[in-house]
Amino acid sequence: MMIIDPISSIDELLTFGVLLLLFDASTNAPLFRSGWFVESLAKQTLVVFVIRTAKNPFKSRPSRPLRIGVVAVSLAGAVLGFTSIPLPLLGAISPLAATCLFLVQAGKTRFYRRHALP
What we know:
The radius of gyration is 16 Å and the shape is globular. It has one domain (4-114). It has 118 residues and is mostly helical. 18% of the residues are buried. It has helices at 4-22, 29-51, 64-78, 87-114. The two termini are 19 Å apart. Helix 1 packs antiparallel against helix 2, helix 1 packs antiparallel against helix 4 (87-114) and helix 2 (29-51) runs parallel beside helix 4 (87-114).
């Protein structure tokens, strides 16, 4: 958590910056809440795939229940009744979530190497 939480916190600040500075969400609270929620939900559910294995998560197939669970959580979040998110906003926050995932993977790899874990 000493690796993943700071990465996640920086990602949240960047998401706020994108929402407030690029999409003027300071005057549109529903858009701000929706954009932040969708980015955070996507990031946190996908982080599960990264931290579930000590190996490279992109080369390791997750179990079916885990895949179903992540899809179910994502769909539930999408239908909660938030305001619709414009495609340009999705295009702006998607790389933030992806970058966060790759940084979490890099931090996890460094942790395992530093502590000589398998």
